[in-house]
Design a protein that fits this description.
- This protein has 18 helices and 90 strands.
- The two termini are 25 Å apart.
- The chain is mainly beta.
- A hairpin with a 5-residue loop joins strand 47 and strand 48.
């Protein structure tokens, strides 16, 4: 059997919601990506500090800034004043960017189809609760648990019951458009599922709200105080459920006309829960020709009586309306969104509408104001209020253009709607992709989610006219306030009386009339989330550099064999994404340096000349606020094993040796080096002593390692420097601490006779606690950071000391080596339980410019890393000690370190392996990161928007590494590999690592990219793209003379194919070829075909299959074209343009488009899926394609695959399942060998060979993966005519649409295959999905399958299920709806019940403690944990595709 593993998490954003979730005052954003839930908090930073969106015009830096007053020249009226540099007033650009910071990432075993926020009493965090709706008919109420920093499930609501199913012919619930809506006052939530079911979930309100809601103190006197009995009953209220039992309403029982509901939403400003529903008594299909048959009705719910009352009904609405958007006051009512119009209906039923294109007149007779000249298409648009006071809403069209919807308000009623496009200079074209969801996350920013491009945070400001600017300048200068600072968008009071008579209600009409609206809105991007969705096609390719160029020499050894090219995105967001598993560093300099074993670069200030005196003003060359690194100390071991150290001066891209200094190379091997005394002293820690140098490498002090009591001289094992402290662990397991004083003299800190002196220590580190994470009391702003010391004893306990007080530890966690999910001071593992062997403990900041936070990093003896995130939770108004409030939560990390190759292990016997400690790096390419040296070199990277990721460094094992910051290598690093090569490198700036945990580089093409292929002979990529053009019916058609007279002002669009040849050397399009109008590329592959019947010459060519579709009244025609890539004279200054596409052969097919292509047989022939036929063709000399064999198919072939060189083919039919066929060449025969049973809508099919066994994998439209095999000897197969069904495994919502069969690499920890024949070659199947997910299906041996399946079954109850969903039920094909609807797949056999191993569950094995993992390993049949780890290394992640 096989194992299914996830390589890249889904990245298409389907839903989003903003709410205060993690605390009462928090500003959170919840983002759903199908099966992944992410919780962000929003953070505002100054735009000038944002590296992602720097302004193009940079202001002069340095001292000129103080003299430059940006307020006088600022067009946006964004003003600010910062106090900086003592008393000087520093004036900067006041623009702020809203950034997203990830709080938690939660994978769920299901499909999230809706989010809703609910303000409930007594939530654990004080924030609001989150309601999740899942595909099928399930809901889950969750809240944030601040004590565990995790999502807690409060209740689960399950409606997938037979009695709710309705008529026998109805589809499963999962097939309908289901959605959840919440009442704005949080009194109930409604979940529409199935055809006409509405589940109502009522929530308990605070007693005061229910009883005193309409108390008027002017009439009824002062409000009475709550009785004491109620107040003392608080505990009982805590345990009471927050919701009443839910109930299901059949919509026709509310009103007999609600037979075909379109959409519903709860309205604002009603005393009782009130929802508006758009529905019809007739089918809403446009094809039936009904006109204006939709009805808008408003119902009020009585939750106690489970009854409803109709309070409003508007009939005769256009049939193309699709959505109800409730609007808050002062506009109120609801906005109905159609495909061609917008209609507003207020609380009295008055309607105002606007037509946005000429089609509206033909579709409806409803009264609409005319703005049809806009030619907008509203399908898939998104609408969100910008300011209800001014009556402005943002409209984002499906082509990502922006427009503003404005309401005209007379008195208290809406009298009109108008739309105005946002101009290009104001950011009207700033978005690239179609919007899937939209959420307001700040006063002037909103999150724009997308399923076909990067999701972004969009901010806006108002361009002010001169009069308004003068007024804003007249405000108090000390406050630095502007009109824009006054928040006009405060949340309105939900409980205002609907029929209020106060004069304040009329005030917004003045603002909405435009008097105080101000200037135009200007939009800009402030943040983005990387998206790989949808992945249309994948192709392995190679990195290419100009031959004999300097770059080719520099990149030698740090470039992977292959790279994975993916065609991603849609529309203007279309791109080719280049994926690599490891970081491919940008190498600045490459040096042979075989003796180097460690690097330490340092930025140190030059000493102040004594002649100037102590009060002299230090010039800029002595100050190092933005100075580059000056020196580098290198620890060396020569060929004889002699240990020395040397010092070098850094140059732009390298280093040069320094002579005539007081640095002594022969003093020994450097263990650690750094700067102290505010960068005035260089500290060199040797094995026997500590040396201090000044900024010119003059020796100022030597501190020997000597125990004064015993006279022993313990050797230094490891050291840690955090100014002003130095900590050393020695080989007698003692700790040495020194502090630098005001005169820059290093002195030992006396240890009290406490546990610090008596306990034996194995490893430790220092950490400067800037944020007060490890303090019991919050630090005051501006106070110096406390330096904390973390030590691990030889017994495996973690001790934390404040270096101001060494008598007692602040915090002790005994169970560190048990690596539990939650490490606290109270946790103690069982004495006999298995424990991890830890070699190093490090606390360091991980993050980027936007957000960074400390993590506790444990290094195992296998070089695996365990990461813990510190969480401090203190009950309000309590002063508990740190041991009760601080705990460490294990971070998600399934990365397994690479095992050392066997050849390296043999070398290690002669030379002892040197332990290289973890290297914390303050800034490498903008990341605060930690580097792991050794056989599995890796960076621990974390961006503000991601969890910590362990990303490998391409190339050999690493012996030493340090940051490297010079003018020629900004924020780079230097490292030496095991081959003796030192490289000065940078992280490439155009590549994203942290968000998906792999290297992602996107090459935008600004159009749809449907297919991508790599032409290996010319080392170029070919992209099949398309662009949309207006479509007209053919005027010259003989059968439809009336088409010649047709004139359409608002024409539909059709795609037109474009072939683009791309050079990977410069990532530019070097040749573009437009196809015929209405011709779309359905399939494209680079194939090794025979191009001559006479010479039998074979060449790599590009085969393109297309379909020409000119409306439904004309038959679809097909076309096959074969292109060669030829060498031409390049354009001047562009040497990469020396290649071009040249047409080699072309064949017109009268019926059916060419949907799939493949090479077939051993003679270089082409297999074509055309309409209802599969045909084998060969290239002719005259440029034609000669058919040699064909096969009649059923309905519509979506994909064909051939097992290379065998003639065995698989065809996936969109209606009739999978066909298995065989092709032979002498004589030419092509026949069906077997078919899958049942009518399965198969999307893609592929082979997965495993030695002598051959499995056939198919994925259907429901997202189920089926495994078949061909066995003519089985009695149920009817001599092989029916394929045997082995198993079905649900992949929803990540249904693969493309597959690639790849050779599999075996990690060094496992036995390598000895054979060289094709049967012995291991394979894996790469699956890519429209959600942006990449996964792999890998065959397993019988013993590995049994052990991993046993391990999975033990993990299922052990790991925490997220969001109330069960991972095992999710993988069953019936998990989508009622069981009676599960589809019959085919011939079942005795072996059909075996499940595919779920690698997504296996990847969570690191969440468990060491004892639990050891117990599971024994129960699963492993000898020890190491054997289990080795087997998982070969299965999880990218280890089977090491060439990427």
């Amino acid at each position: 059997m096989q194992v299914y593993t996830e390589l890249v998490a889904p990245s298409a954003v389907t839903h989003s919601l903003s709410l205060p979730f993690t605390s009462t005052a928090a500003s959170n954003l919840v983002v759903a990506k199908g099966s992944l839930l992410q919780i962000f908090e929003t953070r505002t930073i100054a735009a000038e500090l944002d590296p992602q969106y720097q302004q193009p015009e940079k202001q002069p830096t340095g001292r000129a800034d103080a003299d430059y007053d940006i307020r006088g020249n600022d067009d946006d009226g964004l003003e600010a004043s910062f106090l900086g540099g003592g008393e000087t007033l520093m004036l900067r650009d006041r623009a702020h960017n809203t950034k997203l910071v990830l709080v938690a990432e939660i994978p769920v075993a299901g499909t999230v189809i809706g989010l809703a926020r609910l303000k409930l009493a007594n939530t654990a965090s004080g924030g609001e609760a989150l309601l999740l709706a899942y595909r099928g008919a399930k809901m889950c109420l969750t809240e944030w648990n601040p004590q565990k920093a995790a999502l807690d499930t409060v209740s689960i609501h399950y409606y997938e019951k037979e009695e709710l199913q309705g008529a026998p012919w109805e589809l499963p619930f999962g097939e309908y458009v289901n959605y959840v809506e919440a009442d704005p006052a949080s009194r109930c939530a409604a979940f529409k599922f199935g055809s006409r079911n509405l589940a109502i979930l009522p929530f308990r309100q605070a007693e005061e709200d229910l009883e005193m809601e309409d108390w008027d103190e002017a009439l009824d006197g002062p409000k009475p105080v709550k009785e004491a009995a109620l107040a003392t009953n608080g505990d009982a209220h805590e345990t009471e459920s927050q919701h009443s039992p839910s109930f299901v309403l059949r919509l026709p029982l509310l009103d007999p006309t609600l037979l075909h509901p379109v959409h519903l939403a709860f309205l604002h400003q009603y005393r009782e829960p009130t929802f508006a529903i758009l529905s019809s008594a007739q089918s809403t299909s446009v094809a039936l020709g009904f006109k204006d048959h939709l009805t808008y009705k408003v119902f009020t719910l009585d939750l106690k009586q489970r009854a409803s009352t109709t309070i409003l009904s508007v009939t005769g609405l256009p049939q193309d309306l699709t959505r109800v958007i409730p609007l808050p006051t002062p506009v109120g009512g609801a906005l109905l969104v159609g495909e061609n119009e917008l209609i507003h209906i207020d609380q009295s039923g008055k309607a105002n509408g606007v037509a946005v294109n000429p089609m509206a007149r033909q579709m409806t007779s409803f009264s609409l104001s005319d703005q049809s000249e806009l030619n907008y298409r509203l399908e898939g648009c998104a609408i969100e209020p910008i300011s209800m006071e001014t009556g402005e809403l943002l409209l984002i069209l499906n082509d990502a253009k922006l427009a503003i919807i404005s309401f005209k308000i007379d008195g208290r009623t809406v009298s009109g709607i108008s739309l105005a496009p946002v101009s290009e200079e104001n950011g009207g074209n700033i978005l690239k992709s179609r919007v899937s969801c939209i959420s307001r996350i700040g006063k002037a920013s909103m999150f724009i989610g997308s399923e076909c491009g990067d999701s972004v945070v969009l901010g806006w400001s108002r361009k002010q006219n001169q009069e308004k600017r003068k007024k804003s300048r007249a405000l108090d200068a000390d406050l630095a306030l502007d009109v824009e600072d006054i928040d006009l968008d405060d949340d309105f009071d939900e409980d205002d009386d609907l029929y209020a008579t106060e004069p304040t209600a009329a005030k917004p009409s003045q603002t909405a009339s435009g008097a105080t609206k101000g200037g135009e809105l200007s939009f800009r991007l402030q943040d983005s989330l990387l998206c790989l969705a949808p992945i249309h096609d994948v192709a392995p390719g190679k990195a290419v550099f100009p031959p004999d160029s300097e770059e080719a020499v520099l990149r030698n050894g740090v470039t992977s064999e292959l790279q994975l090219a993916c065609a991603v995105g849609r529309g203007k967001a279309g791109a080719i994404a280049i994926l690599n598993h490891d970081i491919q560093p940008k190498v600045i300099g490459r040096f042979e340096f075989p003796e180097a074993r460690g690097f330490w670069t340092m930025c140190v200030k030059k000493p102040v000349p004594k002649a100037l005196g102590s009060n002299a003003v230090i010039s800029s060359e002595h100050d190092s606020t933005e100075q580059y690194d000056r020196f580098m100390i290198v620890a060396k071991v020569d060929l004889d094993g002699y240990e020395t150290s040397d010092v070098y001066a850094l140059t732009d891209a390298g280093f040069e040796s320094l002579k005539d200094t007081e640095f002594e190379p022969a003093a020994g091997f450097t263990v650690m080096a750094g700067t102290m005394g505010k960068q005035m002293r260089i500290i060199q820690v040797l094995k026997s002593e500590v040396r201090c140098y000044d900024g010119d490498l003059g020796l100022s002090q030597i501190l020997p390692m000597m125990d004064e009591e015993t006279g022993a001289e313990p050797r230094v094992v490891s050291a840690s420097i955090v100014d002003p402290y130095l900590m050393i662990i020695r080989d007698d397991n003692s700790v040495f601490i020194a502090k630098i004083d005001g005169n820059n003299e290093l002195e030992e800190v006396e240890k009290a006779s406490g546990p610090l002196a008596s306990i034996k220590w194995q490893t430790g580190c220092l950490y400067a606690d800037h944020d007060g994470t490890f303090q019991s009391k919050q630090l005051e702003d501006g106070s110096a950071p406390r330096v904390m010391m973390f030590l691990m004893s030889t017994a495996g306990a973690l001790h934390m000391y404040d270096l101001e007080n060494l008598s007692e530890p602040l915090y002790v966690a005994e169970g560190l080596t048990s690596t539990p999910p939650f490490l606290s001071a109270n946790f103690t593992g069982r004495k006999a339980a298995a424990r991890e062997t830890l070699t190093e403990v490090l606390v360091a900041d991980l993050g980027d410019v936007v957000a960074k936070s400390p993590y506790l990093i444990l290094r195992h003896d296998t070089d695996d890393l365990t990461l813990y995130e510190p969480v401090q939770y203190q009950e309000p108004n309590s002063s508990a000690p740190l041991s009760d409030t601080l705990f460490f939560k294990k971070a998600t990390n399934s990365t397994i370190a690479k095992s050392a190759p066997v050849s390296n292990k043999e070398d290690d016997d002669t030379q002892p392996k040197r332990f290289v400690p973890l290297q914390p790096c303050g800034n490498v390419g903008g990341y605060s990161t930690v580097f792991l040296s050794g056989d599995s070199p890796s960076f621990v990277l974390k961006s503000a928007k991601s969890i910590p990721r362990i990303v490998g460094l391409q190339g050999q094992g690493v012996q030493g590494m340090s940051t490297f910051h010079t003018e020629g290598c900004d924020r780079g690093f230097i490292y030496a590999d095991t081959k003796g090569v030192a490289r000065v490198s940078q992280l490439p700036t155009d590549t994203n690592y942290a968000e998906l945990g792999i290297s992602v580089k996107k090459i935008p093409l600004d159009c749809d990219v449907n297919r991508v292929s790599f032409h290996s002979h010319t080392a170029t990529y070919i992209a099949a793209c398309s662009t949309r053009e207006p479509f007209e019916l053919p005027k010259d058609d003989d059968y439809h003379k009336e088409w010649a007279k047709e004139s359409v002002s608002f024409a539909p669009t059709m795609p037109r194919g474009i072939l683009k040849l791309i050079s990977p050397a410069a990532w530019t399009v070097i040749h573009s070829l437009d196809l015929e109008s209405c011709e779309t590329i359905e399939s494209m592959m680079a194939l090794h075909l025979e191009i001559s019947e006479e010479t039998k010459e074979r060449r790599m060519v590009v085969a393109v299959g297309s379909a020409i579709c000119k409306g439904e009244d004309l038959p679809t025609r097909g076309r096959v074209q074969v292109f060669d890539i030829v060498t031409v004279i390049p354009e001047p200054g562009r040497p990469e343009t020396n290649k071009k596409l040249k047409l080699q052969a072309k064949e017109e097919l009268p019926r059916g488009g060419v949907t799939s292509l493949s090479e077939i047989g051993t003679s270089g022939l082409l297999l074509i899926a055309q309409g209802q036929k599969c045909m084998v063709r060969g290239l002719r000399e005259d440029g034609g394609l000669l058919p040699v064999a064909f096969l009649d198919m059923n309905c519509h072939i979506l994909s064909v695959r051939e097992l290379r060189g065998t003639g065995l083919c698989l065809m996936a039919d969109a209606f009739k399942g999978m066909w298995f066929a065989g092709y032979t060449e002498e004589p030419y025969t092509f026949k069906v060998l077997g078919k899958s049973g049942g009518q399965i809508p198969m999307l893609v099919a592929d082979f997965l060979p495993d030695g002598e066994d051959l499995s056939m994998i198919g994925v259907d439209a429901d997202g189920d993966l089926h495994v078949f095999e061909f066995n003519p000897d089985h009695p149920k197969s009817l001599q092989g005519h029916l394929l045997l069904h082995k198993t079905t495994f649900s992949l929803s919502p990540n249904e693969p649409t493309t597959t690639v069969l790849l050779e599999r690499t075996i990690p060094a920890s496992q036995p390598q295959p000895q054979g060289t024949t094709g049967a012995e070659t291991a394979h894996t199947l790469l699956l890519s999905c429209p959600t942006g997910q990449l996964a792999a299906l890998t065959p397993l041996s019988e013993t590995a399958y049994r052990r991993l399946l046993s391990l999975t079954n033990q993990l299922l109850p052990a790991v925490v299920p997220h969001g109330g969903l069960h991972p095992k039920a999710h993988r069953l094909p019936e998990g989508r709806g009622a069981q009676s609807h599960s589809r019959a797949v085919g011939v079942e056999t005795a072996a059909s019940g075996r499940m595919i191993v779920d690698g997504v569950v296996l990847a969570r094995w690191t969440e468990l403690s060491a004892a639990k993992r050891a117990e599971m390993a024994m129960k699963s049949g492993y000898d020890d944990m190491e054997e289990m780890r080795d087997e998982l290394e070969g299965v999880l992640g990218w280890s089977g595709m090491a060439y990427f």
